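Q: What structure does this chain adopt?
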Amino acid sequence: MLEWMGTALWIVAALVLATIALGLVRVERGPTNGDRMLAAQLLGTGAVAVLLLLARATNAPALLDVALVLALLASVASAVFVRRIGVSPPAASTGTDPAPDKDTAQGTQA
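A:
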């Protein structure tokens, strides 16, 4: 591999690690459980990306296997987080409009 390519991969891996550090701040600060869950998913995805970049930069195929296992564990961890913490989707509409219609509020004359 070209020397500049290896250096570029190391730089990109460092940038992804910086993104992971910002994600750690979001996990700690929140403010909601949904934010924490998405930041935790970012951590897993970022770690997989770093491992794949380092596997290519160092020519270490074992890191590819570690990245695959981490990707599987990150998806399971996200499902467990949703199950235990109870991150719920936004409330669905019931089909009734709480605001009255203009016509019915003013009274229409027929």
